[in-house]
Amino acid sequence: MTIIFTVIIVFLFLLAIFDLIVGVSNDAVNFLNSAIGAKSAPFKVIIAVAALGVFCGAAMSNGMMEIARHGIFRPEYYSFNELMIIFFSVMITDVVLLDMFNSLGMPTSTTVSLVFELLGASFFMAMSKVSSTLGFQDLLNTEKALQVILAIFLSVAIAFFFGSLVQYLSRLLFTFNYKKNLKWFAGIFGGLAVTSIIYFMLIKGVKDAAFMTGETKDWVHANASKIVLCCLAGFTVLMQLLHWMRVNVFKVVILLGTFALALAFAGNDLVNFIGVPLAGLASYQDYMANGNGAYDTYLMGALNEPATTPTIFLVAAGAVMVYALVTSKKAHNVIKTSVDLSRQEEGEELFGSSAIARSIVRFSTTTANVISGVVPRSVSRWVDSRFNKDELILANGAAFDLVRASVNVVLAGLLIALGTSLKLPLSTTYVAFMVAMGSSLADRAWSRESAVFRITGVFSVIGGWFITAGAAFILGFVVAMVNYFGGIVAMAGMVALAVFLLIRSNIHYNKKKKSEKKDAIFIEMMSSHDKEEVWHLLTRHIRTKELDLLDFAEENYMQMTEGFINEDIKKLRRSIIDQNAARQMLKVNRRKETLGIRRVDEARSAVKNTWFHLGSNSCEQIVFCLKRIAEPCKEHVDNNFNPLPKECVAEFLAAREKLILYINEAKLIVANESEKAPEPMTYRGKDIKKELKQLRKTQLARIQAGTSSLKISLVYLNLLQESQQLVNILDDLIHATEKLFDPAVQIGPDEEIYG
């Protein structure tokens, strides 16, 4: 059995490496979102600063891993074999669970996952040991789990409230044109911010560092006020000097705050990644020294004793974390979720709307109207002048400005330090995320056009935190049960399953990222402040999306008509699924383009708005038309009714060929390549409609003569009618597109469209 337990320890450390990688990928959002979102420095510089903080935090940590040793269970009542099952189950569960959240791009808490995995695995083991002499209260220590549950509520409420309040006051002070007011407040703001960060690093970041002896900690606490005052005076002068030297104080604060948060994360959250393997190693060493081979009876009371981690493990863990931070694409995906939800400008939203979000927005709008009716108009005008977004100073491609990024890092650090000093179990993940959300709300980044999507996103992330706790507990319980009853065979199977799930997850994630196409034109359009350039980019976007839709219409029309003619139900089902996806994409694109047309000059917008919306409506009608064709065809084939007669097939295929050619010629108009069309579009459209109308008359004559089945005739007539309607819609789209892109057109929205 000794060899088997040695193999298990090796597996625990291999899983710990994976856990470090996927854990850092998820927790990177804690300390990177502000610096990256504000473009405070080149991406490589931000990563380098964060990597340095991570490595220093890991290397300086003294590695007190008490939570995994006796924070959840009471080890004196468990045998060596039982604890190895618990540790092994926790590591398997943790790696798979965190990787799943990373793949979804959802930030979650490694603390929550670890605690509830330990609780779930320990709960099962406790169930197997409960007896007349031992109860759950003897076997489990549930106080830590209750603290984590409390931390969820405290972190969300406190961080969001103070994030909103501090950002609101900061914006009143600096406005969006922060450079105008920075000359008066650069030194004071910089001094306060850097002093807060230094205090945070002393209280939270390096409190458990190896060089922080008991005497050093006592001295720091005894002289805390003096340290703070000296730092405040010194850094205030330094920041003012830097400002006079034309150094952007906000960028210094953001990078220093990023370093501090990364330092604290690595120094304190390291337990979440390597605590369990190190507890397993300590158990193994104690068993080898004193167990005498009694693996199923030797009790592990030795884990109640405090232990320190060899420096080599800390340095190695720091190296792995830095590697994960630099190379992990999933870390960038998680950061993107947080940054997009707090973006200043309107843009592409990652989440849809939900009933609770709509209710909150409706209630908030009503409340705001009531408050605005009470506040004096002079006060309202002054506040609005401080929130004038026309003066916004934003780096190219940034999601928000440097003022908000500074508030995010400084306030997150202060709240975490405050929670630590008051012994409140605040989660770094929750604090960092909710401060960012609160500051974005106070900054009026959540307009009525985007608030419902942002709130849905926030609730999705918060819901994910609660799901983490439940999923971690259940999975930890189930995996421990399988390992307990299945023994070594089950453990080997769990390792194989975990490896398979991780490999599959990465394959699916890479495929998903390859299939995702960033809307580069839209991103460039929303970041541009040149109205002429915005119009140019908007027309490119409209052309691109209309061409994509026409490609889809051609392919989908062919797919569903082939499915109907050949009685292929799979093709018909797939065509309907694709139509639903296309409809959702149209809604997204229309919202993007509406945001774009708002950014062009008013005179052009007034002239082109009608044609833009006519074109958008035509695109939607194309999808609806395809859907009206597909659904009756699918129902007919699904019921195994009579197929379309051969004479109908032959005459329809000839008409379909002309309709497909017409769609391709419509693409030439949209792409501004109409000179390549073989003949004027108007005449070809009229000819196709005449032919389809004649086919309908022919089929009606067959019905009257009783030579055709009524069921198949009705479906076929619907196909012909909607195909004719499709040509009409294409005519409207072509007409709207020509007028929209023609610079000579000066028709206004209140004038006759068709003349």
TrEMBL record:
MF terms in GO: phosphate transmembrane transporter activity
Q: Which family does it belong to?
A: Belongs to the inorganic phosphate transporter (PiT) (TC 2.A.20) family.
Looking at the record's lineage, which domain of life comes first?
Bacteria
Topology versus the membrane, per the UniProt entry?
Answer: Multi-pass membrane protein
| Cellular-component GO terms for this entry | membrane
**What is the species of this protein?**
Porphyromonas loveana
The regions listed as transmembrane in this protein's record are 6-24, 45-65, 77-98, 110-128, 148-170, 182-203, 223-242, 249-267, 307-326, 458-478, 484-503
Q: What is the lineage of its organism?
A: Bacteria, Pseudomonadati, Bacteroidota, Bacteroidia, Bacteroidales
Q: Which GO terms describe its biological process?
A: phosphate ion transmembrane transport
Please state what the protein is called. Answer: Phosphate transporter
